[in-house]
Amino acid sequence: MVTITNLNRKKRSVESHLKAGDLELIIIPRAEYEALLEQIEDMKDIRDSIQTLKEYRSGKRISFDRYEARKKAKSI
To answer: What is the spatial distance between Cα 74 and Cα 72, in angstroms, rounded to a whole number?
Structure first.
């Protein structure tokens, strides 16, 4: 539960950080914030895909088709 005392304490904490210069506050609409989070996730996926492709091309990884073929060969 949020009380007035808690809010006042938080307000004083934020004010002291602002005065010290070590806190920045940016207010944006929730929809814009969520869109930014989605873009960050997309960028992480792209980064991971690039890393995987580099590993595959360097011989550190095998294609899924080769993996499936090996798996089937072992089960026979």
So the answer is: 5
Residue 1: both structure tokens together: 């539960």
* pLDDT tens per residue, range 45-62: 999 889 888 888 888 877
SS (H, E, C) 11-67: HHHHHHHHHHCCCCCCCCCHHHHHHHHHHHHHHHHHHHHHHHHHHHHCCCCCCHHHH
What is the distance between the alpha carbons of residues 34 and 48, in angstroms, rounded to a whole number? 21
Q: How many domains does the chain have?
A: 1
Domain of 27, in residue numbers: 4-75
User: pTM to 2 decimals?
Assistant: 0.50
